[in-house]
Amino acid sequence: MTDRNDPRLRHQPEPGWQVLDRDLNRISRVEYATSYVSQPLVAVGMAMVFVALAATWAALVAGGGAGSLIVVVASAFAAYLALNIGANDVANNMGPAVGANALTMTGALVVAAICETAGALIAGGNVVGTIASGIVAPSNFADSAVFVIAMMAALLSSALWLNLATWLGAPVSTTHAIVGGVAGAGIAAAGFGAVDWGGMGRIALSWVISPVMGGALAAGALWVVHRLVIDRDDKIAAARTWVPILIAVMSWAFGTYLALKGLKHLFTISFGQAMLLGVACAILSWAASKPYIRRQSKGLENRNKSLKVLFQLPLVLSAGLMSFAHGANDVSNAIGPLAAIVSITSHTDGNGAVTVPLWVMVIGALGISLGLMLFGPRLIRMVGAQITKLNAMRAYCVALSAATTVIAASGLGLPVSSTHIAIGGVFGVGFFREAVEARRMRQMADTVELPSVAPEERQRRKLVRRSHFMTIIAAWIVTVPATALVSGAVFLVLRHLQAG
């Protein structure tokens, strides 16, 4: 027999098949690494294809008129902005449900895409007030061509800022981004007098109002849930009584919320009528949820983990309803300036309400949904799991606070951001958990002697990640001035290119 350890055989060439097998393994590893590295490029490539298709569609619709090239370029900018709105803003609707494991990531993407598109196309409305009219008016510009360039600058600058914010992992207000873009282009084009500074002041006020109201209401709702269900000796019996009522409260909130944010585009509805519609939804949902909760609660153990089963369905419904309302309301951020450009270039009135062609609405609706599918998961995970740990009850409180804050702000006439409200709600439940945990530790310290904890370890045990908190707050503060500066610079570049 041949000894494989014989020194005389060590330097003999290996069989050819072994060399080939080793080389094939190297090639397969290179192919695997290449496919892994190229995964982000697939999403970018699909996004670029969508932008190109939107521009091509605009070219076919616009024909060969004088302003067709401008409409084509503006459509590409609007498609790019819609993609970024889907990537950034929709995470606020789906993050809590995913973080609470009520929805898988794939399920959240599918539900959000369907509801966002439906909201934009069904309740987005055929007539949308131009986003520019509340900040700058076309009459403040020397001619319509300058106004068109200002709107194009607003579209591109808002999209660039949202792209950067999504890359940094910071959920920001898309409304604030487009408002900053319009204001910056307006200042660059017609000076500071072109901007409605009263409107800008109200928007700045919403930076404080939105997250504070959202956080306070979410923390208050979680306190109520603790008192009514979580802290009871018999949690399941308490849940059978109170969870249908909590679902009814959520139904009231979302019925009113949808009436105020979505249905107003279909028909005129007053604040009182919206409230009555919400009450009707609450009564129906309470009657339907009582047998459902009784059936779902059978055989559950008397512990907090069992309660998540009872909150999953309302969480899924709330996520879908929030996405529907978001699609109906925020699609105007993407297609508002484009609609104004189409209106101006087609020689119709651009000062008041702007009739939005269906093809423009479709660009916004599909862009938001595609942006969510391609780039949304990262921010959904961050909102749902990385700021603070969410379970079904906490996520319910975040969703409820988002709807009720919008209702309260609408009744008071206060401008608020749905993004800021939702993120404020997540922070609110996180800080409430910290307060509850701190009180529990103090009570334990009164009865038993606990070992001392170093300040660094105490900071590590915080239930809200401070790094995300500071990043998001900083992004909120700089959104309007940053987009305004970028928009002003883009306007000057576009103006120079037009003159050239």
TrEMBL record:
CC annotations in GO: membrane
> What is its subcellular localisation?
Membrane
Which keywords annotate this record?
A: Membrane, Phosphate transport, Transmembrane, Transmembrane helix, Transport
Q: Which domain of life is it from?
A: Bacteria
Membrane topology according to the record: Multi-pass membrane protein
Give a yes or no for keyword Membrane in this entry: yes
Give yes or no: UniProt keyword Transmembrane helix: yes
Name of one Pfam family that matches: PHO4
InterPro entries given in the database record? Phos_transporter
Q: Name one GO biological process term.
A: phosphate ion transmembrane transport
Q: Name one GO molecular function term.
A: phosphate transmembrane transporter activity
Q: Which residues cross the membrane?
A: 41-60, 66-86, 98-124, 144-165, 177-195, 207-230, 242-260, 266-288, 309-328, 356-375, 395-414, 469-494
Q: Which family does it belong to?
A: Belongs to the inorganic phosphate transporter (PiT) (TC 2.A.20) family.
Q: Please identify the protein, giving its name as recorded.
A: Phosphate transporter
The protein's organism comes out as Falsirhodobacter algicola
Its lineage reads:
Bacteria, Pseudomonadati, Pseudomonadota, Alphaproteobacteria, Rhodobacterales
